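S.,

As promised, the C2E run. Input:
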Amino acid sequence: KAKDSGRNALRFYDVEMNTSVIEHLHLISGIRSALLKHEFKLYYQPQYHLKTGRIIGAEALIRWIHPEQGLIPPIRFIPVAERSGQIHEIGTWVINEACRQAKEWQNAGLSQLVVAINLSPIQFRRDDLEGDVMHALATAQLSASSIELELTESLLIAESSQISSLLSRLRLLGIRLSIDDFGTGYSNLGYLSRFEVERLKIDQSFVRRMMDNSNDQGIVRAIIEMAHSLKLEVVAEGVENSATLTRLIELGCEYGQGFHWSPALPAEQFFKFVKDYQILDGE
Ligand code: C2E
Ligand code: MG
Ligand code: MG
Ligand code: MG
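Predicted complex:
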């Protein structure tokens, strides 16, 4: 096929993306069409309060349901969308859809559930992010305290006064903020005390291995202690078994999510999962 030979003939590889330029362009037009054809979907992973075992929230995780290729994970298209600028349109859709879904679940009885939304640092480069969030909350008639925004360390270390004032305005509205993938980025922790962030999410790479690797467990323990001394709560990502859960409780970690309980599920399945869980739980 012409497309294949073209692909092989072109030998410029984008090292960072680990894809050829042709594949990259192909993806960009694929994303454009996915937006038009509504092929993106949010899946939801339950978040637990470890001591009580209660489900307190859901992290919204985007999937691309491709008509031929099936489910495409975010790692395959979010980095491309960040470079092409399409992350703005995707991100706005994610914010609206997550708020709409949160309201639907509240109406169906999950009144305490907080939905966590991942934000790319690129989305902060435009000044309409705050307006997008307020508009989504207003449209869904959802209270600000029902959502949490997951930020990355790279956003916070930039030390931009615009970002810091935007974040404090979001906090004033009552929106919760957390730092995602904590531990993978930067070692300068000074920024932590400058922002009104509520929770740190320890990256799954440390949590997953913590029962087999004492260095990883040491990192997890240190992050929990540091977070607590700064009055931040901790979410452990990547809890895959009960031994890890037990240890995290001993270490004082407040929250967790991971395959030990459930992967991210389509909204309908998530709702059913929570309902069944609550019945088992005797709630
Ligand atoms: P993240 O925000 O750190 O999300 C956690 C990732 O860990 C998810 O991968 C989740 O499915 C996976 N995970 C959860 N529990 C476990 C576990 O026990 N073991 C293992 N091995 N993995 C677990 P996913 O859904 O593929 O998302 C990957 C990344 O893509 C996310 O990392 C986030 O950075 C990004 N992403 C996802 N949805 C969005 C979105 O709507 N907007 C933006 N900007 N980024 C998103
Ligand atoms: Mg996240
Ligand atoms: Mg994470
Ligand atoms: Mg991650």
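The chain has eleven helices and twelve strands. Residues 1-11 have pLDDT under 50 and may be disordered.

- D.
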